[in-house]
Amino acid sequence: xxxxxxxxxxxxxxxxxxxxxxxxxxxxxxxxxxxxxxxxxxxxxxxxxxxxxxxxxxxxxxxxxxxxxxxxxxxxxxxxxxxxxxxxxxxxxxxxxxxxxxxxxxxxxxxxxxxxxxxxxxxxxxxxxxxxxxxxxxxxxxxxxxxxxxxxxxxxxxxxxxxxxxxxxxxxxxxxxxxxxxxxxxxxxxxxxxxxxxxxxxxxxxxxxxxxxxxxxxxxxxxxxxxx
Length: 228
Hints:
The protein is of the alpha+beta class. The protein has a domain at 35-102 and 147-206: NADH Oxidase, CATH 3.40.109. Helices cover 41% and strands 12% of the residues. The chain is built from nine helices and four strands, in the order ααβααβαααβαβα. The protein has helices at residues 20-29, 44-55, 74-82, 89-92, 107-121, 129-139, 146-167, 180-186, 221-224, and strands at residues 66-70, 95-102, 171-175, 194-203. Strands 1-2-4-3 form a four-stranded antiparallel sheet, with helices on both faces. Helix 2 runs antiparallel to helix 7 and helix 5 (107-121) packs antiparallel against helix 6 (129-139). The longest helix has 22 residues, at 146-167. It is globular. 21% of the residues are buried.
């Protein structure tokens, strides 16, 4: 699917299902890479596909309360490594993405989203009045914690990113081992109303990463899936 088709109606996009075993093999292959090969870089077309897969992540109401901050500056990545327990993935992986959540959900955010729906679907904003009212009511209800809600949405996007990376043959590592306050300062997030929630590195595993050869440990189906 070309990127120009990204916002076509689902019925207009040809679906190409993969076999179940192919999906499972890719998920068994992936693991949280501890050592990347710094000499191997992700090709631009492949990375673009992964970025667009992340854009297609689902979210509550479709509000997408996030930004995916792709860190390409090497000096900046060195600084962030210092704020990430000196983990080598931060500098050695081909790509570093900071999954940042919006710290506030404003009326402007809702209005912008409604305008986007109207543009993409070719409908009037007036026809979306009830939906607009519903979202506004949700966001303004007493006790609504924007940060907690947005963080949950960000982790949905992280899951899409990791699964899509595996399907593309890209190694990745989700990382919570960093200082959000230092990231906040280093990346200058204060002016954009964002907070770093989780980090993901992507690239290709080093041949001598000992974790690449360990068996994946998961609880059995009987222990995890409850059928009623």
